[in-house]
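Would you kindly consider the sequence and fold I have copied below?
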Amino acid sequence: MIAIEREFNAYLDQMDVITVLLPYSYFEGTSDEFRLKGEGVDLSLAIQEKVLLEDAVKYICLSSIRPELGKTYVIIDEHGSETDLQIGAVIRTDEFDSLFFYGGNDLGVRYIPEKTIFKLWAPTATKIKLRLFKEDDQNPELFEMNRGDKGVWSIEVARNLEFCRYSFLVCINLEWREAVDPYATALTVNGEYGVVIDRAQAKVPDINVPKLKQPVDAIIYEAHIRDLTIHPNSGAARKGTYLGAAETGTKSAIGMETGLSYIENLGVTHIELLPVHDFEGVDELDRASDYNWGYNPVHYNVPDGSYASDPGNPYNRIMELKQLISAIHSQGMGVIMDVVYNHVYIREDSPFEKIVPGYFFRHDAHGLPSNGTGVGNDIASERLMVRKYIVDSVMYWLNEYHVDGFRFDLMGILDIETMTAVRKAVNSVSPDILIIGEGWDLNTPLPPDRKANISNQAKLPGIGQFNDWFRDSIKGSTFNIYDKGYALGNDRYLEAAKQVMAGSVGIGKRKHGLFLQPGQSVNYIESHDNHTLWDKLKISAPDQDEAILKKQHRLATSMVLLAQGIPFLHSGQEFFRSKKGVGNSYRSPDEINWLDWDLRDANMDNVQYIKGIIDIRKSNEAFRLPDNEQIRRHMEFLTLPAPLIGYSLTEIEPKGHWEKIIVFINPSMDQLLVELTEDTKWSVLADHEKASAQPFRHIDGDKVLLEPCSLFVLAK
């Protein structure tokens, strides 16, 4: 790309408004006349306003005709000099959005052996060429593309193009840029070029998994593909890959199940995979030298090649990810895909910015890219073609890869209408597809009432949100590692803990909760972000006996699983996963991030306990009531001295095996005797040592002794 030298600049900022910038070094920034000239056009512009800037004079001019986007125009000043009319802020106007919205479902590549059709939305381009070549071809072919309605460019090449590499050369503001197709579904190594493939050749038999009756029936287990198997004792043959994660029957050093078989046996319903779409941060040809979580998105519709056995083969990564998804399905679990539509890795290098500069990203009041994401760019999801892209991409993964849910990273950057459109589109295929997201309130130039965040959850039915109120009430602040939550013995969080255990919908004296329905609350205390709970415990209480820390950890994790709402576990949480004190380990070595299967083997007693708690939840619908009315009707908190929590679940015969369940939570370091609501024979489902959906002992009487830092679940 060769930079264009201009004596002055002119921009189309609205469909009929042209802004001219004359530097003071150019005739002291003065001109009393400007003309617009182009094919069949030669007219004077009406100067509406003159603004003195630091380095130039800005002239805001009105045109009596609307320049046609895609055509070339020049602006001539009174001195006889001319400059090209560049595309300016017009692309961020509602009028541009409505004029150039394209509703077709054929963007990208449509292949059959006889011909391939390429389509690209680029309304501000004046010329586009398709660059096409075979893998070893040193002389690529160039095809002039044709502009059609709504700024869609297309070309049909009438021969078999399977395996051909391609890119687009786009001319905007007299500058040529080369870009990968944003709708590409196959790539060369490290995403340098798109590849034409026959999608019919990339099919993998899929296996249906049981459908959820309600979102609260889900139990989510978050995992990173490489972390699952890269440990020396994972038992996987193809460590750190799609196929390694797909292996079943793998064993640890002492012969215990690992990987997929272990996760299935734990009892979770869904595995949430950290991003698998193409990302930067790991060289696909030298993946051992780098590590990344995957939140550096580049190409949204192609699996990343760093987990593939042969990233040079464009089909390989596609087939192997599909095989992993099929393997998870064969174990009876669903797959939730972590999607990162809120930003791109580097805005200037993104196909979006190269093809339609300035359109796909939000800008602040000063015209600079907004930074609510913290990485220098926010996707402008409120624009029609950005929203369409997100919906199209989600539906591609749903229909082509048969995923069972989506987790939207930094969902608060996106707008409500986009997320509602996603939910509606997904419902057209299957309403039981899970959609969850991080609804943080982020500083992006979108009106507060349009952000897809927790504050606006009433406008986002059918979409779950990560509940930071739950996280911080039970564990303590994520951002103050020394702040301890309720499960860690801080009874300052007692009332908050009650509310979040009830699904955060409002119960008792609190008539209004954080959420309207429990299916909107994703309950968690640990995820890939920030310190693991074990590391927080170790750092905040370095002198505490590890046996006590393990009790606190077990209690907090059990509360996640027995709370109303959707429980979410970080992989390895059930065996005290540690990242050696590293908080955000997004590019730390494997030794920090891997699932340590030796650690799992050493803590099988805790794994069995958490497995039992999961079984209790799955066996009793009373722990996963689907709406706020049922929670208020069936769940009642008992009057107990602080810091104890006790609650009963009553009138629940149709929702399990019992007519009544009582849960006691003791976060203190003391043995405490509590009175039961009635003197009868109780079945014990969980105590300080064991948990099971089947009673393992019984107690008679009207009192029960609660061990320090423990849970007690009784049923009758």
